[in-house]
Each structure stands twice: as structure tokens, then as C-alpha cells.
Prior knowledge:
Strand order of the largest sheet: 1-3-2
Order of helices and strands: HEHEEH
Helix content: 40-55%
Number of strands: 3
Shape: elongated
Radius of gyration: 15 Å
Number of helices: 3
Structural class: mainly alpha
Amino acid sequence: MKLSADLIDELALLSQFSLSSTLEGIKVHGEASVSVIGASERLFEKGLITQLDGGYLTDLGKDAALHLTRLNSILTTPVTVDTAS
């Protein structure tokens, strides 16, 4: 599986949303980079956010952001290796 630049941009933008409150959204301004604006548009088209320029997470978006948070935790948690075996 290869992660495209577009997918990485979408994941990065998705990670900006807070999972602690459904009342917190984001706004992607017109001065944002082309990659961020594109990521926002694609997330909207996929039904993960409520507005073309950000807004709030949809239920599907919340699920995706939760999975992203869990994956980040898995990948950033140090692993201890038992060398006694």
C-alpha cells in the first residue's frame, strides 16, 4: 500500500479536528496552501466534513479521526523488546 501525497494531506487535515468536542470545527481559509485546500475539498466530497472549507466532522469523519488517533498512538508508543528469550 502506497500513501499518496493527497492522502497524507487529508490525514494531516483530519488530525486537526478535535475529538473532545463536537462543537469545535475548523476553517480552511483562502490563503491556505493549495494542498490544504484540496484536502479539505476531498474530505468534504468523501463525506467526512460538513463544509467544503472545513466545518465539522460528520459521523463518518469522527470514526475516521478516531481511527487516525488510534493509529498514531500505536505508531508512536515505544515498544519494549524482551531480550531475555
